[in-house]
Amino acid sequence: MGSRWVFDGHIAGIGTASGLRAVVGIWQESPFGPFADVMVQQPSGHRQLLAPGPDVADFIAATYTFDDVTEVDLSAQLGHGTLEVDAGPLAISARLGGRALLGRVLRAVPRRLAVHPGWLHAISPVAGILSNGSRTSGTAGSGRREYYGVSDLHSITAAVVSWNGVDAGALAPVRPAVTFGFSSVPPRPGIARVRTTVAEF
User: Fold this and answer.
1) Nearest C-alpha neighbor of 70 from the set 168, 147, 163, 200
2) pLDDT (tens digit, 9 = 90+) per residue, 142-197?
3) Distances from the Cα of 150 to the Cα of 58, 61, 73, 178, angstroms
4) Which residues are paired to 40 by β-bridges?
5) Which of 22, 179, 192, 199 could serve as a FRET partner for 12 with CA atoms 20 to 30 Å apart?
6) What pTM does this model have?
7) 10 Å Cβ neighbour count for 19?
């Protein structure tokens, strides 16, 4: 068994009418301290990581797949019913809705079990069916394996998204699925409470 890294926080998935899709990670606890990052996929398929510094950028780029990695001044604020992101060329102002049906199901599972890698490996095929392709366990870059332990899920009901100052269009499903790693976020825009474990073997 090699190294293991644990990230505890939230992941938001947002799609737009233009085809730009963004996955925002807001990590309250991590090996790098609190931070946020954004993975963006353009309508063309181009995949870009927006990261707050070199250590975070290097780790994420070694775990996922990108066509471009950019270090930017980055802030992501999760408030009461709101998500505000300022990440270089990307700006997001989103309104959060109520707990999704899947969120109610997830909350029925004790969190200690819901984030355990063994459980996440076992349920990954079922999770992919229930969430339209969002797997809970799979291989990552650099000989690593990754586990997504989701314990709650809220909808995103509205968002204003811009790229380089240009409006990316109305909130839309995250389609096609993003291709940064073995799993996408659910098609319906939302924000999940999650613990991500990355293990090296």
Assistant:
1) 163
2) 889 999 999 999 999 999 999 999 999 999 999 999 999 988 899 999 999 999 99
3) 25, 22, 28, 18
4) 22, 48
5) 199
6) 0.92
7) 16
Cα 188 versus chain centre, distance: 13
Note the pLDDT of residue 132: 67
Q: In a 3-state reduction of DSSP, which class is residue 118?
A: helix
Between the CA of residue 92 and those of 117, 121, 162, 165, 182, what are the distances in Å?
32, 33, 7, 11, 25
35 and 27 Cβ atoms separated by less than 8 Å: yes
Rg for the chain, CA atoms, rounded: 16
Report which of 90, 85, 84 is spatially closest to residue 70, judged by C-alpha positions.
90
At residue 26, φ and ψ (nearest 5 deg) are -125, 105
